Amino acid sequence: MGKRVLVLGLVLFLAFCGIALAISNPDAISIGSVAVFEDVVEPGDQLFFVRYDVSYSSEPSEDVEDAFLMAIYNPDGTTTGYTRPLNYYQHNIISIYLTPSQALTWGSAYRVRVMGNPGLFSPLTEGTNMFTKILGVDDYKGIELLGGYLIEQAKDLQTDWGITLLTSGDLLNTTGAMYFNKAIPGIYNIVPDIFQVSSSFPSINVTTNWTTEGEDLWLEHKGPALNAAMVDIADWLGTSPNWIGIGITSMLAMIFGSTVYAITKNPGYSLVFSTLTLPLAAWGGLLEMTIWIVVFMVVAVIFGIIFIQGRFT
Amino acid sequence: MPRDEGYRRLPMATKMVEEISRSPSMRSEQGSGWLSDWGGPSQYVAMGKAPMEARLVYYALQEGATDEASIGIHSGLSVGDVSRGLSYLRGKGWVKES
To answer: pTM, whole model, 2 decimals?
Structure first.
């Protein structure tokens, strides 16, 4: 007796579960447009797009995400396993994105379906709770056509919905952008040109192959003979050619400064004119430009402290 | 793709209408006359969840039908459907008892 009650209870439970999951068929179900694009985000990927209509005269209380889905089937009718729940009842759009590793054979007669959830609709009947579109060659399109195609779909939806999705310049406004991005996540970055408002990252060219133009110029001015002489002297003294250049430049600066001082008897003029030796030495190849800039800064500071500040104290 | 069939077919999901209504930017894009044929967004959502016969009866009344016979003429519904539609609307308080 107890077993019979248990079995009866189980049967009743399953029966009520079935009733609870039942959902009425739509008044109409169809696919208005379907297209496949490749090389969408990266080479070899694919985007399957569908504009559908799952039309109910009175919308069911069940969430559409649970009740209907878009699916891609092989040409022989076996499932590819690629499905995605619909976002809305009635006339709307949806898509499935496949990565390069998931991508299907380009141009093949795959079956794109908008269908009821097999767990809620039994049986699934073509034209009643399922609509199948067999892909033709014309449904496969180049990525360069994606923007224009989506705008055409927006025009169709705009007319049917009776709302504004496009600007006067045929760009998707905030409303249009919202629903197209919901159907195709990331579409903002794929075809930003079709949006009234879009954002993009600025491209920054990072230079990794620096040229040796400055060094080449320095060596050119330096001349092979002077360069060889400085290298030889540096080797002989056991130091670097830069120190030899600094030494020669310092001697020239002292000679120049002493000459000016002998004529003017003014240490300020002497210091200023001796400083001019530095750029000449740099131009001539005796001194690297960076060294003369450092020395120039030091001299400028000393000059400022001694002669300019000195005149006001 | 089915087109306009009077008020029988809902072109847009009611969830969408609710989302647009909640968003100030999307709402402003649609202007003040948005969904005026349906009596406004909130009426669209309410009617979208009502049975078809109730919707047709409601709009027949809006268009000037005064009794069940004229509602039937306006809407093309049978007497039984008109009666069911009216009782649904009365139950919701959208139509007063005559």
So the answer is: 0.65
* Contacting residues of B for A178, CB less than 8 Å apart: 19, 23, 26
pLDDT tens digits, one per residue of A44-74? 999 999 999 999 988 998 999 999 999 999 9
Question: A164 and B31 in contact by Cβ < 8 A?
Answer: yes
Optimal mutation site among B4, B5, B7, B15, interface A, most CBs of chain A within 10 A: B15
Q: Give the CATH number of domain A25-146.
A: 2.60.40.150
For residue B37, the chain A residues in CB contact (below 8 A) are: 162
**Tens-digit pLDDT profile for residues A208-217:** 777 777 667 6
**Residue B16 with chain A: CB contacts under 8 Å:** 88, 92, 179
Question: Which two structure tokens, joined as six digits, stand for A161?
Answer: 């919905």
Residues facing B7 on adjacent strands: B5
Per DSSP, the residues of A139-179 read GEE-GGGHHHHHHHHHHHHHHHHTS--B-TTS-B-HHHHHH
Cis, bond preceding A123 (omega within 30 deg of 0): yes
Look at residues B18, B12, B26 and name the one whose alpha carbon lies nearest to residue A177: B26
